[in-house]
Amino acid sequence: MRVTLLGGTGFIGHHLASLLLEAGADVSVIHRGTTPTRVPGIRCLTADRRDTATLRGALAIAAPSVLVDMTAYRAADIIGLLPALPPSLERLVVISSGDVYWTYGAFLGLTSGLAPTVALGEEGPLRERLYPYRDRAKGPDDLPFEYDKILVEQAALAGAAAPVTILRLPMVYGPGDRQRRVGIYLDRFRADPSTLRINAAEAGWRCTRGYVEDVAWAIRLAALDPRASGRTFNLGEADALTQLEWVGAVAAAAQWPGAVLADGSEPPSMPANWQIPLVTDTGCIRRVLGYEEPIGRQEGLRRSVAVASVEPTLHKGET
User: Fold this and answer.
1) Which of 5, 53, 137, 229 has its CA 20 to 30 A from that of 61?
2) All structural domains of the chain with their residue ranges
3) What CATH number was assigned to the domain covering residues 2-172+209-239+280-298?
4) In what order do the strands lie in the sheet with 91-97?
5) pTM of the model
């Protein structure tokens, strides 16, 4: 099978490329050329997705049966891709996000709502308010101004001639995570070796997470299995830890001897409605495709801690 990744040299993509190669796929990566690939044995093609003509030429060379779009953040990204899709394409896999659900808008304070009593499945209601990060944008040309995975999904489903698979990612952690979902706590452990305090409301908040190699494995399954055709899947761990449990798990992986405490006087890490969990039901991909984590949280955190302890802090724009 010929599989092409649009994007695929970064945090998740290089793991996915390796897994696809191991599965026997003929793998191509189309990227802008700013970040070298770390995976020997893949075909690398250079194209900026905003240049439809150049992208069409790269896709014609790759001639994929499956295209995995790792870098569609705006509706315009998909709209520019559609006329470049090659006749060889049998399926388009679009990487989306759990931020499409209504709970994300309520968490950010964009809308109101009561906390859901169950994890949200793939048919759950989506955000009513679009462009969740627009107020953070420096201007109309800044990515957060037009970012919205809801519109990405809608454009792909409405315009692609081939069947579309939508994969909604969780909060992904692991080596190379620019959000430093593990590293930020290692910094705090070093700053105070005895106690780490978490705002009491934040301490009870839950969200769905996934270790980067496990998420890449799920994408690999969806890319190679025809049963994923036309389906939408939530990705992530089956259980959602509270923030207090999450920090405790990081502390255990780091063998940090201090205490992690919920404290009503501690300010939250960011302004948000901590009463709204960001938990999705990941049972569908497990039932339909037989997904199971090959690494798992405990080993994933161990690997994350080992790398975060020695790697420099990553800044925006680096991969």
Assistant:
1) 229
2) 2-172+209-239+280-298
3) 3.40.50.720
4) 43-46, 26-31, 2-6, 66-69, 91-97, 164-169, 232-234
5) 0.95
